[in-house]
Amino acid sequence: MQQRLRSLKRPLLLAAAATTTVTLGGAYYASRSKTHVVDKPLVPLKRDDKNRIVPPTFSATKTRASQLAELRRSGEDTEYDLLIIGGGATGTGIAVDAVTRGLKVALVERDDFSSGTSSKSTKLVHGGVRYLEKAVWNLDYGQLQLVMEALRERKTFLNIAPHLSSSLPILLPLQKWWEAPYFWAGTKAYDLLAGSQGLESSYYMSKNKALEAFPLLRRENMVGALVYYDGQHNDSRMNVALALTASHYGATVLNHVEVTGLEKDANGKIMGAQVRDVLASKNGDAASAQPFKVRAKGVVNATGPFTDAIHQMDDPSRKPIVAPASGVHIMLPKEICPNGLGLLDAATSDGRVIFVLPWQGYTLAGTTDNPCEVEAAPVAQQQDVDFILKEVSKLLTPESVLSRKDVLAAWSGIRPLVKNPNAKNTESLVRSHLITTSPSGLLTCAGGKWTTYREMAEDTVNEAIKLFDLKPQAVALPDISGAGASGFTTRGVCCTRNVPLIGAHGYSTSLASQLMEVYNIDADIADHLAHNYGDRAWTLLSISPALNTRLVSSLPFIEAEVSHGIRSEAACTIPDIIARRTRLSFLDSHKALEALPRVLDIASTELQWSAARKEQEKADAIKFLASMGLEQQTDAPVQASQEEKMPVRSIEHSSHPTRVGGLDVDLNGLGGTSSYSKSRDD
Prior knowledge:
Elements: H1 2-7, H2 9-32, E1 46-47, E2 53-54, H3 64-73, E3 80-85, H4 89-99, E4 105-109, E5 124-125, H5 129-137, H6 141-160, E6 165-174, H7 179-193, E7 203-205, H8 207-213, E8 224-233, H9 235-248, E9 252-255, E10 257-264, E11 270-277, H10 278-282, E12 292-301, H11 307-314, E13 322-332, E14 342-345, E15 354-359, E16 362-366, E17 370-371, H12 382-395, E18 409-418, E19 433-437, E20 443-447, H13 453-467, E21 476-477, E22 488-489, H14 511-518, H15 523-533, H16 537-541, H17 560-568, H18 574-581, H19 584-587, H20 589-607, H21 611-627, E23 658-660, E24 663-665
Parallel strand pairs: 3-4, 3-12, 4-9, 6-14, 12-20
Antiparallel strand pairs: 1-2, 5-8, 6-8, 7-8, 10-11, 11-12, 13-16, 13-17, 13-18, 14-15, 15-16, 19-20, 21-22, 23-24
Helix pairs in contact: 2-7, 4-9, 4-13, 5-6, 14-15, 17-20, 20-21
Catalytic activity: a quinone + sn-glycerol 3-phosphate = dihydroxyacetone phosphate + a quinol
Pfam families: DAO, DAO_C
EC number: 1.1.5.3
């Protein structure tokens, strides 16, 4: 008994010290914290003299053809201030920051906005409770500062995109008596560090209340629970909103445009890039598929896991700075996470943490953190999925143990951890983002996380202004609110803390009911559209009443989302639509396959595809769904093996095509293997 008490001495002392600290500010915090709710829109909805809603109208999105023309002109008689390579969270965040400072900006993305890591996150907007614990245990003030910065950015995130983000209560089960004061002190410190940017205050929950709120939670050895609040968002739709906001404010923003080389002057300084339209080749337009020059005063490398590839393009002798790590997530049935309450397992079998979160009507679980190779289409490995299933099952009642048949989708994202090339210890990883400049003038922003994308962008643009001698200026931005106002004028400095993204201006908790007041749609569809498109749902629903029907009978996605994604959100391929304009493939890969025939028909009409292009898109979509976990579900027991290399959702090959929803699907050859390293034990 004495030995056990000695082992608990440090956590108890830390808990006592933290409790003293947070008690001083606890009353203040509790008096002013509140749930993040948007009761009133930034722009009121108009009604006519009979009190009927007058739907807002918005300016059209610039066409792909017009933006390609803008890009081509820069190689002839104009020059951009900045050319940004990469259309993920970092790149599009930089574009919004730079264009609102009055700079002339272009952004190109080889695939689609958020096609890589930025769409494959845990969907949290957070400071990081586990990072706070590490900061306290290691007496690491630098780590503590990072948590505080992320907590401030969390509130900004929720403010500028309230339709795509929200606060989320997360339950932390307590298994031992000493955990109550220890974790209570930790969550209260987390609240307090957020300061005026905090969400609702954390609180203790009794065992009975916890089981009532989370019925599937395992009751054995449980002594109670703590509930704290963090943010949650729709990552790829947030990414698309950033890209569209930058475009509407004057930036040239293009997906499916690849950088093939960097342009340098006689002194070896970068002065632009060679790019090519990837889609021109798919459309059989050989002339338009030829590379062309884009001139820019500065080039920014914001390519995440592919940072080193652009570095090699600049200087083949440059050493890698990215330490890629794979993060696997799985989607499970919604019944696991009831009542909008998430779950955190802070003590998994290998010391990592697992989140189990409600998201888009389903349950999201993850993540892993294993070293890996950088690849364009990573696939979740069986051992990683089995690890998540095993750890989640330990939290649930014995009769709720999960098997692979419960996995509706599975994917792997590559987290671009970075090493500071100037650090004495070259093996140490940078805890935040890293901004570097090569001798030729290539500016790189790497590392970081979704929550701090805005701060990363601000730091990068600040550095670009100094490095390339750019001249920010006041600029009158056009109105994108749909209110017919005159817009607003910036002062040439960073203002992104206060720039609402597309869809945010007319959003409020009343938007879904307002949509139903005008259009004959079901409540779940209205709620889905309000929380995925914000006020742009008005444009979507106005396309055609015939398209306001479901793509899949059991889900709220409608056909108009396909047309809207193409017309107003730069969707160019089927994966663009089923993965990043809608989130169908992330929620249920089989449901996405079921919707595929209708998605193909609508997209081919909108984009005027040839029969050959339509067939190619079908094949590409099925291959993509294989990487998202498409498989024949089984009741196979979870037995994780470190030697397994096949994807968890590899498809059983057949010599005959399968027919799904009117679509002939040849599953031969899909699935494949991945080059991921074995899981670490640390």
